[in-house]
Amino acid sequence: MPICEWFWSAGERSTLRAWGYNRYLNISVKGEYALQAIFDLATQNSTEPVKIADIAKRQKIPQKFLELILAGLKQGGFVESRRGAEGGYLLARSPDAITVGEVLRFVDGGKTGKATHREHPFFDLWRRVDQAVSDVVDHTTFAELARAWRESQTQYVPNWEI
Prior knowledge:
Elements: E1 5-9, E2 13-17, H1 29-43, H2 52-59, H3 63-75, E3 79-82, E4 88-91, H4 100-107, H5 123-138, H6 142-154
Antiparallel strand pairs: 1-2, 3-4
Helix pairs in contact: 1-2, 1-3, 1-4, 1-6
């Protein structure tokens, strides 16, 4: 199922709406927070549950909203919860087994656009862009993101200030 959504708006202009970061791609707040929560759990090298308050603080997510998101992710089989004083959340699967595309489709309901107007000159271009975005998010795991993040945070950056 494609990640991108193509719509025809007034004035016969095509508009791309997709999950992502640049000016052409928009991700829902719920989707963004879900990705951040899964990412946070993926970066915790622990078999101990992570408290919601800790995730909310590190990722700057409102705790009440995060509680709802994590409950949904639990139903989707992405996270497990543990009760009690030492309770919290853990990934239900290895970070290598969870892709960004999988989480986005689950959280945002697998929205797909109506790629109509095949006769439009840009139809094939938009279809290829859609496929390219889907290929990237469907082949990007949270383990890859965590590794890349750790590497970027440990690189030495010289400071020439005196």
